[in-house]
């Protein structure tokens, strides 16, 4: 198949690619995605300084180590001054964006986050991405007005039964992340979402539907990574997992992650797509680089102080959990340069967002 700048793939074609094992065909897929990446978002790799501001979480997501009932996890919530110190480090290292990420933590009040946003904007002028879970619409709007630029909320799976089984709702509330993503877009946020690859019970058809939903939502940012079992979660118990025929179950593999990154680039060519920590966890040697040459154009160096970082244990053996901000910075720069790419300057908004707004 010749290199194509066509970006329409139907469900059947997507399933075909997800099942593809032929190395020569896969090489074509990587080349196609890399080509589109170069045309639409260029050779720059944008760095996003990740600050994991709290690991408290009120939710019960069946796969996640931060889930409320995990009493073995030491909980922390960073102070205003600690968060600002990390943001200053981001600016000093030349990053144009900070990502404030946490569990779903009501202890991070509307007012507190508003003050953090205003302080970062006033003092440093960085782009701000929030990734704080499913929050109320009025607070999302307050934060947008305070200067937040972007919001990340993975919908995790588009398969309703699988979603419901692994995401018990909060008492008296429903959970509709897809509706919330549409609201965020209306509020003027640059919107990011994504899924886990290889969740127990996820079929090839489900994953193809996830990819089609990325395009339908016209996402500005797409983050995907392999599911990694955490022993202190219900999903570690096979009895809890949704079971599908073995030939239908998507493997939570490194290769499958590259396929999904590449197909995301093909379907949403102007989106910003990170090469994620979960991928680096499966292949510490060069997972990040392979993500970057198969469709990705963003990496998220971790700025969380090491004594907190070790407690942000969403899944076990997480890459970078022992490193300092400086170590991740140096490491990622070297990795980017090793593949002949260069570090992007400025806020690095998604061309998709610039195009639609
Ligand atoms: N394995 C891989 N990724 C996970 N996440 C949560 N738990 C796991 C796990 N066990 C992902 C979810 C969430 C993001 C912050 O981390 O997709 O949105
Ligand atoms: Fe953290 Fe390489 S990115 S050590």
Describe the structure.
This protein has 357 residues and is an alpha/beta fold. The chain has one domain (20-356): TIM Barrel (Alpha-Beta Barrel), CATH 3.20.20.70. 41% of the residues lie in helices and 11% in strands. It has helices at 11-19, 23-41, 80-92, 110-124, 137-146, 160-166, 177-186, 204-216, 254-267, 277-282, 287-292, 306-309, 325-338, 351-356; strands at residues 44-54, 97-102, 127-131, 150-152, 190-193, 196-197, 221-222, 225-226, 298-299, 342-343. α2 packs across α9 (254-267) and α3 packs parallel to α4. The longest helix is centred in the first third of the chain and has 19 residues, at 23-41. The two termini are 35 Å apart. The mean pLDDT is 96. Residues 301, 320, 323, 327-328, 331-332 line the site of FE2/S2 (inorganic) cluster.
- Average pLDDT figure: 96
Task: Write down the CATH topology.
Answer: TIM Barrel
Helix content: 40-55%
Helix/strand/pairing category: alpha/beta
The count of helical stretches stands at 14
**Which class in CATH terms?**
Alpha Beta
Order of helices and strands: HHEHEHEHEHHEEHEEHHHEHHEH
Q: What gap, in angstroms, lies between the N and C termini? A: 35 Å
Radius of gyration: 19 Å
Largest sheet: 8 strands, parallel
């Amino acid at each position: 198949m010749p290199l194509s700048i066509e970006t329409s793939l139907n469900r059947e074609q997507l399933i075909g690619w997800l099942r593809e094992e032929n190395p020569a065909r896969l090489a074509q897929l990587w080349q196609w995605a890399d080509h589109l990446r170069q045309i639409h978002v260029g050779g720059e790799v944008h760095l996003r300084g990740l600050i994991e501001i709290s690991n408290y979480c009120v939710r019960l997501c069946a796969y996640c180590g931060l889930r409320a009932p995990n009493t073995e996890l030491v909980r922390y919530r960073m102070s205003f001054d600690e968060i600002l110190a990390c943001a200053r480090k981001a600016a000093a290292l030349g990053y144009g964006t900070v990502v404030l990420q946490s569990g779903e933590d009501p202890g991070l009040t509307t007012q507190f986050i508003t003050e953090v946003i205003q302080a970062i904007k006033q003092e440093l002028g960085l782009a701000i991405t929030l990734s704080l879970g499913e929050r109320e619409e009025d607070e999302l709007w307050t934060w947008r007005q305070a200067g937040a630029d972007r919001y990340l909320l993975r919908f995790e799976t588009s398969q309703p039964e699988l979603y419901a089984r692994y995401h018990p709702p909060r008492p008296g509330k429903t959970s509709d992340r897809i509706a919330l993503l549409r609201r965020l877009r209306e509020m003027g946020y640059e919107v990011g979402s994504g899924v886990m690859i290889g969740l127990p019970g996820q079929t090839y058809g489900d994953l193809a539907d996830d990819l089609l939903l990325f395009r339908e939502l016209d996402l500005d940012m797409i983050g995907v990574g392999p599911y990694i079992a955490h022993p202190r979660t219900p999903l570690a118990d096979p009895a809890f997992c949704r079971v599908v025929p073995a030939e239908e179950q998507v493997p939570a593999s490194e290769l499958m992650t590259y396929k999904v990154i590449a197909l995301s680039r093909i379907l949403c060519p102007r989106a910003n797509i990170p090469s994620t920590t979960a991928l680096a966890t499966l292949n510490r040697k060069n997972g990040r680089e392979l993500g970057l040459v198969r469709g990705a154009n963003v990496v998220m160096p971790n700025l969380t102080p090491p004594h907190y970082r070790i407690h942000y244990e969403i899944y076990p053996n997480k890459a970078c959990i022992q490193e300092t901000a400086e170590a991740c910075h140096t490491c990622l720069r070297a990795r980017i340069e090793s593949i002949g790419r260069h570090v992007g300057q400025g806020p690095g908004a998604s061309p998709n967002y610039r195009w639609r707004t």
